[in-house]
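Researcher: Final request for today, and then I'll write up notes for the group meeting. The sequence and the SMILES for magnesium ion follow.
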Amino acid sequence: MISFSAVSKRYPGGQQGLQEISFTLEPGEFVFVAGRSGAGKSTLLKLIPAIERPSAGTVLVNGQNVGALRRAAVPYLRRNLGLVFQNQRLLYDRSVYDNVALPLAFSDHSPREAERRARAALDKVGLLGRERARPVQLSGGEQQRLAIARAVVNRPSILVADEPTANLDIESARSILEIFVAFNQVGVTVLIATHDEALIEGCGRRVLRLSAGRLQP
Amino acid sequence: MIRSWIRQHRRAFAHSLAKLVAHKSTMLLNALVIGVALALPAGGYALLASLESLTVRLAPEPQLSLYLKGDAARAQIDAISVKLRSDARIAGWRFVSRGEALAALRATEGLAEVVAALGENPLPDAFVVRAKATAPEALEVLARDLQQLPAVDQVQRDSAWVRRLAAITATGRIATGVIALLLSVGLVAVTFNSIRLQILTHAEEIEVSRLIGATDGYIARPFYYLGLVQGALGGLVALGILAGALAALNVGVRNLAAAYGSAFELGFPGFGDAAGLLGFAALLGWLGAYLSVSVHLRRTP
Ligand SMILES: Nc1ncnc2c1ncn2[C@@H]1O[C@H](COP(=O)(O)OP(=O)(O)OP(=O)(O)O)[C@@H](O)[C@H]1O
Ligand SMILES: [Mg+2]
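Model: Predicted protein-magnesium ion complex:
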């Protein structure tokens, strides 16, 4: 469960990221965060894994007040979340396999179990067989899939994705969306930020609309 | 719990070895710098240890030798005996006739031929005097008084050169210690900088790892190992340089010692000392890495 109550975020430079945001996400929900560029979508998503901290209000993730989390506790919060970043943040000097296996290195699995999970994650996004490739040898859509595979490799109960379909044609974007729908069908809570209205329309899911840092009714 | 902890460390160690291999020319160069720098004080200690074993073998005693004039008469020798017996500062004394001295010389390792070549006995009669006091000043005064006795040609403080050698080695020890300290600081700085470069090279990986749940400890560990291994490699290089240098020096030292009929040579550091050097080098590497990580890896996300 994710719950924001009266959350505001003002950046150190004075920019207002979010103002008085309140909403609740039930377990197993599939929700879009929509809004124009600069509306505050990324800011909202970054508050969940404590990449940013709220200036006011509380953010609860699975009952934990993540805004007040000690620095040492943050890694353990993040391990239980699947995160897809707006600029993907892949390691371009590593193989596809190494990228997917990265989160497994610091959660405690035997090498055999780690390999099984990495291959399973690659399989779910349709990249099995490309383990040895470098990210630059993948298309934009395949790189997005790789970022998703890395996010789900630890089997999180919550998936948070920032613009996972950016710069893709509508067909590729839909097939990426299919992946998230498949995870949601097995009970994973999904939160996706996008400015792509066409993508949202065909889905019939709950949408949180942001405009200049405020939630539209 | 313990098993996962061991696994984490093994993984970090493997990780750092992989980095070491990936940047092997830089790392080997660093190890070489560390090794050369460590070889200097380590060599100093090895030389001093050899010299000290020499001074221990010739331990200083509060002893004076009174060499008599060649024409000293029997009566004069007896007069000196009486004087020595009545001097409260003297613990004991022994008369060594020129004949006894020559016999002792002949028995000395490597000198038999020299004595044989001499023909006639050039040695004087002598008294060997053991003083009660050991303080250099007291011995100095006693030597001056004994010098005044009739028929005494020369008073020699036998242990003077041994004491001089001991003073030299003591000074050498301090100098080597200072050099070792300065170079250790230098080595920590070398490691500090090389780990800083490694952290910069892996900045993206570190940042991404943090974003997806790596702890500070997990991120720091491979760098600690990197410093440790680099330092230990430097220690190995130092031992190699030391062994080579001592072997080369010993060729000359052995010839020199043989000329004095001695089998003296410079000793190689024992297993304990070698292990100590390796451990010390590894510790310096770890320290450099620890400081570097503390400075460069603590950016709050
Ligand atoms: N690190 C930051 N420091 C200062 N201001 C920031 C920072 N990140 C975002 N902002 C500001 O906060 C506001 C919201 O930015 P945010 O990145 O959340 O928008 P967004 O909806 O994700 O936009 P986009 O669709 O372009 O990704 C903007 O005005 C932006 O300039
Ligand atoms: Mg954004």
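Model: Residues A 11, 13, 15, 17, 35, 37-43, 86, 195 surround adenosine-5'-triphosphate (ligand 1) (CB under 6 Å). The interface with chain B takes residues 49, 51, 71-72, 74-79, 83, 85, 89, 91, 94, 102-103, 105-108, 150 of chain A (CB under 8 Å).
Researcher: Thanks, that's everything.
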